[in-house]
Amino acid sequence: IVKVFCDNFSHKDKKSLGLETNGDFSKPPIVDLESICNIVTGINAKVPRGLSNIVSLCFPELNVRIKKPNQSSKRFKNIGRFAMIEQGKAKPLGGLNDLSAEEQQYAALDSWCTLQAYARLREMMPDTGISIT
Q1: Whole-Å CA distances, 83 to 48, 77, 87
Q2: Residues 78-99: pLDDT tens digits?
Q3: Cα dist. 117→55, 70, 85, 108, 121 in Å?
Q4: What backbone torsions phi and psi does residue 43 show, to the nearest 5 degrees?
Q5: Residues 6 or more apart from 56 whose CB is under 8 A from it?
Q6: Could you tell me the pTM of the whole model?
Q7: Sign (positive/negative) of CA torsion 77, 81, 84, 86?
Q8: What's the pLDDT score for residue 74?
């Protein structure tokens, strides 16, 4: 089992797992897409790229720019709830029943994109001797 995430500048994912924020997360069992992307691109980004930028980097053949929806969009009006939870400004979720259908759809898409980006980054990994499988 591999835990794959794309952590932001606040390192909430790492902290929620009780991990040091400056550890090596480029190989299983815990993988941060930001760490792998730094290796693949050869650029140690000072600012997190974010999942949308990593997906765009991983799939240039799509010839589209993936970006988060406008927060004011009616369809995605509650997506900010995830950021609020991450920042400790909203109560943590107890389960799927705590989410609206739209929030469940967003969370599923976010998870699917994370796994697809991880699979592609594994293919793109240079021969560094680091195995991410």
Answers
A1: 16, 12, 6
A2: 667 777 777 788 888 898 899 8
A3: 6, 22, 24, 14, 6
A4: -120, 120
A5: 62, 64, 65, 66
A6: 0.77
A7: negative
A8: 59
